[in-house]
């Protein structure tokens, strides 16, 4: 009886650029400093102060545009967006309306069934506003007064606007995650949603499945975690469907996600929307970029997450292993450094995921912090590959090598872990051990093959840690498969 | 020392101090003395920093004279920021505000040895042509105290005309340096847009504003421009050129375009037209060629200027909302506080222009008003560029009339606006323009002649102005108030 509905979703993502200084002045952008300690006449909007564009912000915006397949404009322009709010010192925000720095582009969602392309409309540069701290209440409602902190005012932002190509809340979450990862990989954003350095608004509408006309769009603000984003969109889609099915109209409006209520609430309707009176900012000349500049910037483009994952899978990693590695640019950097010492990607990846990550987590270290230990780690892998060390020995040494920077060869020597070159002694011990366990051997021969693990374990014990399961296993198999001499 | 001609120009004063005949402190005392004795009747200054100026002069006397403005007393229009000193733009809105930083021009003037003695009166935020919209009350014309000094840099022009200071720095958005210079009988120079850093100038029309000197002589104006010109990493609209210097060159052979509608005809006071005709005859006799220029596009200049300047003002003045500096009038909520602060802080003319500009930028009207004005500005710029392919300088009146009586145009904004008819073109096209005294009318009020040059062409207009000034030293005439030191009965100050 009920019509099947489909959702149409587009996201607007604000990403703070990881520049050292603000977009129009020399103030630092460090997060978490005492209120109003990173403020000058320019970012405080003092009379007579003028903005001067930070070239690094332009480079980062262009880099993001290139990585996302957009066109970096020959000429872009800053406009003033005029409105009054106490966190906006000049009474206008410097942004880009008619001539953004990047047009077009796309982001491919890494879905199980294959990538889904989400088109981008534009990326533009703008300045962040300050922050209000409300007093006398937990929020704006009921506050007795509000304090203004301008440390964030003038931090550079890019706003990345997607086409309405997302079909559900899950895709929206994946889009934000993948976008965050791309920006993190480029080094243009620190990815910290909890600090507000990546913020997201969603435009949501629904329509009867299979139709083309777009429904009335509602903008949802305040989606500051992946979980909230997904929940808010799910809840908003259901709200819109309920209204339509009840014969009530959808109002074009801005709504806020309220986590405690588990729903969106109306913030302002279209009629209340401000007239921003955009016009070109006369204080800032047009940004003119040429091919030589673009070529120089594009040299700084790293391999992107999608390509990394593809390369990982091609080298023999599972999809989830490839996702885990490419999902952490610092970890991938460590991996590449290990590979740079000659270790095949597959081995380096397996040992990093299997052993390396655990050591780092225990030691509370970031992959970036142990980059200079990558050579030792690579040699340790190589010693196992060359059967000079047993696999258990790797586990014994990896912490000292990766966390403390020990030399694997010296450490293996010190602890007497070198595997003896196989002069037949292993085969002799296999023979001795298996002969001493006739019951278990008999069980194996009667078809209870699960006893093999016990037998291999007993041989390794007899070898006192110098044995390698990879060598011992086949020796045990051969012994068992050989018809008994006696 | 009063009336000693050697103190009248920056050039002569620097020479006298360098020769050891006068200390910087003595020169500063003299300047402060004149302010004290004359300003009660003029209202040219809104803030005098006597102690700071004397301390600075003492410092200068302890070091060997080096800078080109060593010991020269300079006043700043009150929309130019100087650290720790009140900067009010002659508005209630900024009462009590002192910027924590120096404008770039301030740093450059001080580095050149100038002694900054105070701030001059102006139309509120630069909006006006008579200095009557000042929240401090009007400045009077030193040649006739019942007349306006012009505006918006009226205080600066009156202070220079009476010798309180050798030089003042004004700002010019549509004629605000040149028109008061003309009405007070001094030299006023609006440089090419981007020649002088705007950092520290409280913005009126950001794409039009430019600071420049008001001085007694063309050579003094050039001397000051040499100090304050040049690129600044704090102003992205500054021209990216090296230092600017000037040495006068002969003018024979110069092609002088004459803006016919602005040297004769209806709207021009006959005495102004007569003075200009004499100046043109002199140029011709000096070997220059006069070329009549019609430039019909100039008919659009005033409306274009008012659309663009008011649009920019509506945005530039948004920062005055009582949150961080200046006036704050509390109400029950944020909207109420904003409304009360801005209602009480701004004067009528400022409100009028904010409203006009807000309208011109609003949804549904933006393209018809602001969009079209930007296109016309482009056409006007191109028209000027075409003219300057054929002529070296463009001659016209600076103001179609001499100084008008106080209050006579206050209730007629349109008449006030038409005072700017000759001057706004240079702001729209970003060109340099100079006003030079060229005589007096029958009432003894000064007349000014405007010389405009191509973009970056300050040198050639200074050449033309300097040659004329040498042959016609009008600047040596002194306004009666400079000797009549009795304050007006009842005073004029608010």
Describe the protein's topology.
The complex is a heterodimer of chains A (486) and B (494).
Chain A (H helix, E strand, L loop, with lengths): L4 E12 L38 H13 L3 E2 L2 E2 L2 E4 L9 E4 L6 E2 L2 E6 L2 E14 L3 E5 L9 E5 L6 E7 L6 H18 L11 E11 L9 E4 L4 H20 L7 E6 L4 E7 L9 E2 L6 E2 L2 H8 L6 H10 L4 H8 L2 H12 L4 H19 L10 H12 L5 H12 L5 H7 L10 H11 L2 H8 L6 H11 L6 H13 L5
Parallel strand pairs in A: 13-14
Antiparallel strand pairs in A: 1-11, 1-12, 2-6, 3-17, 4-5, 4-16, 6-8, 7-8, 8-11, 9-10, 12-13, 14-15
Chain B lengths: L9 H9 L5 H19 L2 E4 L1 H13 L10 E5 L26 H8 L3 E6 L33 H8 L5 E6 L5 H7 L2 E4 L19 E6 L2 H11 L26 E5 L10 H16 L3 E5 L7 H16 L17 H12 L2 H14 L5 H21 L5 E5 L15 H6 L5 H6 L3 E8 L5 E7 L5 H14 L23
Parallel strand pairs in B: 2-3, 2-4, 7-8, 7-9
Antiparallel strand pairs in B: 1-3, 4-6, 5-6, 5-10, 9-11, 10-11
Can you characterise this structure?
By secondary structure, chain A is of the alpha+beta class. Chain A has 3 domains: 5-292, no CATH class; 305-414, no CATH class; 425-481, Arc Repressor Mutant, subunit A (Orthogonal Bundle). Chain A has 15 helices and 17 strands. Chain A has helices at residues 55-67, 169-186, 226-245, 291-298, 305-314, 319-326, 329-340, 345-363, 374-385, 391-402, 408-414, 425-435, 438-445, 452-462, 469-481, and strands spanning 5-16, 71-72, 75-76, 79-82, 92-95, 102-103, 106-111, 114-127, 131-135, 145-149, 156-162, 198-208, 218-221, 253-258, 263-269, 279-280, 287-288. In chain A, strands 1, 2, 6, 7, 8, 11, 12, 13, 14 and 15 form a 10-stranded mixed β-sheet that branches. A 3-stranded antiparallel β-sheet of chain A has the order 5-4-16, with no helix packed on it. A two-stranded antiparallel sheet of chain A has the order 3-17. In chain A, helix 3 links the parallel strand 13 and strand 14. In chain A, 39% of the residues are buried. The mean pLDDT of chain A is 92. Chain B is an alpha/beta fold. Chain B contains 15 helices and 11 strands. Chain B has an 11-stranded mixed β-sheet, with helices on both faces. In chain B, strand 10 (433-440) and strand 11 (446-452) form a beta hairpin. The radius of gyration of chain B is 21 Å and the shape is globular. The model of chain B is unreliable at 484-494 (pLDDT under 50).
